[in-house]
């Protein structure tokens, strides 16, 4: 029975009063937060973590989002404008100079300083600002670095470049380096920088930094900068104007072909009506806003699912107190308000902690982000107050949402059951199960349609609907799985029973694990499929790990390199053997024109595809109708071997002993290829070119054509028929043919040294490649080395980051649910102790409870993630199933690395629960009634 004094103590405050106000509820919540410090800290941490992440992102974004004045300083230093005049037609540009178009043919016409000053107002002063790239000797060998032609001593460069130490170059024999360039070259102030050919050298006089780009840069005086292939593309001038350059003046200069970046226009942009139609801003990106809103919705759902069980813990532990409130006249609204006040108080605490920590982390990591991530300096220390206010409101609102379900559950609780310690109904309502199934089906349909239409908003919306549906289905699924406890040992049986009995807390925890794991797995599968699709489009030029050392002829009749017979290939092979783990180094030649032909004329041999094997739609790929695309896709003659390669060769002339290094063919396949070369034939990778063991080669001489090749010209090209063989093993030649000396002689053409085919026992390192490059350039500046390293796969940590985040969420959710089960199961543990259960039972019970939550959530999440990603990839593949030219399909790959992390997490959660749980069983005295 209820003690009468307790009844009278609550009665005056509740009966006849308007009810518990929000202020009173907040005071109760504050007191409860102090009493249950562990649970409160857990909830605050759950809310503060995403707030910290959002605050860090907002503050970092604001710091790196340059203000107009800062952007102008990065673009033009202290000048009034930066201009380029390289066109002979009228220019139309946007106000910021980010884009422009040129009337006419847009031919590039470099202007001199005198010509530019003649087109500017009197009193103007300009200095050149050039950008290109060149090769230099580095600490490891030879490397290509960005070069700038700029007088850093001029006041106009203030803000554009910062002198860190020393002084700027004062003559043609001096340079300044950025810190990264100095590190790569291995030269500091007073050191020497050498060109790749060692012909020129410069003295380092200072260290400089370009705030807009912290990458490797070598700074010269404008007139001393080495000429690079892109030097005219980066030619600009800093303009010190007699007055601010207005938008009207910019448009006038556009008429003469100048592109102008004006400081005054940066600071005072013109209205949209004065901007050319093609360069007007389209306003807010609706898709970006939609994606941001949906991602925020997913984040809120995840936080609610994580923090909800913690509020359920509080409501469960205060069940008797809430029952006393109800027994003394408290209405369901009063009970809801008390529990919701917990969400407001803890949400505010989480928001405050997350905001302070997020801003602090953003400020502390700013230098690291500048150097290692963004590679540019931030505009200043600032924190985006408007965004922080929104984040704080979001945190408090999320706390309220997380407490919403426990609040309504507490308000509907049976007062008698609460006061006597009995449990109420634990059955799941069928309407929630039906609603969950419907939402899951609708979400899958929306995701599928969005993927088919490549609408990312629809895909994310479908994912949210599907996750909500699975969340609603989780309680019923928990109850179904709990029936398996009948055949399990004691500890797992009790764990499954408690999980089903406390569904208000265990179901959200399982759903949180499921949502995190599903998102991680789904995105991991998609990213893996994209990488494998890119890899499928890669065609290795030679077997992986092997290398080609090629000689580049000058192509000019006056070029002394073409007067002789090319490099000493024996010496080249010796250098390769000294630097690489060489198994074999075989010289190779290339096709050349007959003796007496000018060296600037190109000659070659190209396989001709038989007319009956040509694709009828080969020249109309971009204009075919849907019906013709389907026909082309079904025609075996139109099968395409598209792709790209980082290493390759043209019509290389090789001996039979070079075929293993070029093709990687083995066994009888290699023997037949060697026989074809020995018989004066060719080796290819495409069997369509081979007819009855023969291949037709077109004999190309640049003097035969005037630059255009018509069908009639194609038919007149002379040909020669030689033996041919298409290899099927190893790495077949991609887009080229391996020729024999006999085939070249049959075409009445000549040969000249081309380079060396290097067969390695392993893939050489970058240091070894740089060292060999330096050695080859010392021998001849026209020697280049290419190592086949396969498709480039960046070290993108996204999959592991996602798996780690899913793992942390799984651990947190399992810990919360295990703590709830331990709190609710205290009386059960006392009963076990009373009947003689061993002390290890409690430890095994906690381990089992954690395993049920983490394991069930992980299994559901993996299944959901794989299902969603498979549907998305299938939809993408179906969308391109009838298109031609054929694009590689997305393979449904499994991200085993991230799955391994996710799979280990339940075991870690179980081990942690077992180690951190006291094995001593509690002995409780029965409370007198």
TrEMBL record:
Keyword DNA repair part of the UniProt annotation: no
Entry membrane topology: Multi-pass membrane protein
Annotated compartments: Cell membrane
Membrane-crossing residue ranges in chain numbering: 40-61, 289-313, 344-364, 384-411, 432-452, 458-484, 505-527, 798-823, 852-876, 896-917
UniProt keyword annotation of Cell membrane present: yes
Domain ABC3 transporter permease C-terminal as annotated: residue spans: 295-412
Keywords: Cell membrane, Membrane, Transmembrane, Transmembrane helix
Protein name: FtsX-like permease family protein
Family note: Belongs to the ABC-4 integral membrane protein family.
One Pfam family linked to the record: FtsX
